[in-house]
Amino acid sequence: MIEGIFVDGLIFSIMVLGILISFRILDFADLTCDGSVATGAAVATMCIVNGAGVAVGLILAFLSGVLAGMVTAAIHNRLKVPGLLAGILTMTMLYSINLRILGNKANVPLLRKVTIYTSMPETFSFLPSAWAALVGTLIFVLVIKVLIDVFFRTDLGLALGALGGNEQVIISQGMNPSVLKLIGIGLSNGLIALSGGLLAQYQGFADANLGQGMVVQGLAAIMLGEFLFSSNKISLITLRAVFGAIIYKGLMFFGRKYGYLIHITPNDFKLLTGILVIASLLIAQTRSMASSSGARKKAIQRSMANRQAEAEAEAQKASQAVDGQADEPRDTNETIRSPRPDGPSEEAR
Question: Are 242 and 149 in contact (CB under 8 A)?
Fold first, then answer.
């Protein structure tokens, strides 16, 4: 049971990393995710069914997601369509494309086919099958995470981060933001489609409706991870996204298992996910306002302390100047004579 939660959460974390790139790093509201995750699942499944192999299926799943993301970025760049609408257009078109890939079927099973999860017990034969799947998935996710961390430390990765922060900085450096958006959104959806390819092999089938609501779930996982700790380092940002995905899947599991105690059914999960996202946004906004208020109070206190210190320094200088004048020696031979207004002086007489 616990192993299944972690395996499901780790597979889901790859998709969360893809959503993290588009929504958090690039600041691009991309809804292509709901279509590209099903595209990755369909491509990987049909490759395995037709005998192309697991590795080829996962590579082609990743490339199909990259292509889907680049279509969204191209619609946004060339037609000047808002990113949200461009993602909706691509997602809508992908539904029909996914059905075509699956041979005009709603779902395709992987029964009696060699998948990555049927071969893991043989690879890790010294472990039980459930733990072998967990170890294999963990290694796969760690490799993906390390590659993402390394990529965002390169010049191209830093440029993508700067693009999300301030597009004018990229333009002033002579870079083309349209090209960077193609790369960033393509990479984001490539990871999402790769997650779909793994998920299809784990659950044993691909479905054209696999991606419904995945964006909201991914955002919920990202926000859950952000409550764990705050950091600006890319390695910790991706780590908390992985943790958030596992926590989210754990919450969903316990909701399915024990939700009947409070009359919660699986039909309520999308509602609960939306409420979780709204609550996370409210908590984040409250924390932001509290931190801003605290920073403002500290700034006022520092300003008052600086003014008090300046006043004390001026008072000290003034007192030192008065003391210096009081201690100044006088000339004892100097005779003060008051001149008479009329008549000669006594010496003249």
Answer: no
Determine the straight-line distance between the first and last CA of the chain, rounded to whole angstroms.
127
Number of separate helices (H) and strands (E) present in the chain? 12, 2
pLDDT in tens, 178-195: 999 999 999 999 999 999
Instruction: Report long-range pairs for 132-136 (Cβ below 8 Å, ≥24 apart).
Output: 133/3, 133/7, 133/202, 134/3, 134/6, 134/7, 134/10
Q: Decide: helix, strand or coil at residue 337.
A: coil
Question: pLDDT tens digits, residue range 33-84?
Answer: 989 999 999 999 999 999 888 999 999 999 999 999 999 999 999 998 898 8
CA triple 20-142-72, angle to 5 deg:
30
300/320 Cα distance (integer angstroms): 30
CA distance 79 to 180: 17
Q: Are 45 and 236 in contact (CB under 8 A)?
A: no
Residue 152 to residue 173: CA distance in whole angstroms: 18
Query: How many angstroms separate the CA atoms of 218 and 343, rounded?
Result: 108
In angstroms, the CA 144 to CA 133 distance is 17
d(CA 342, CA 147) in angstroms, rounded, equals 105
Structural tokens at position 57: 């299926």
Closest CA to 24 of 308, 288, 218, 315: 218
Task: Give the span between the Cα atoms of 252 and 12, in whole angstroms.
Answer: 12
Q: Which two tokens stand for residue 260?
A: 């009947």
Integer Cα distance of 180 and 177 in angstroms: 5
How many whole angstroms separate alpha carbon 147 and alpha carbon 275?
Answer: 33
Q: Are 34 and 213 in contact (CB under 8 A)?
A: yes
By C-alpha distance, which of 157, 159, 199, 185 is closest to 75?
185
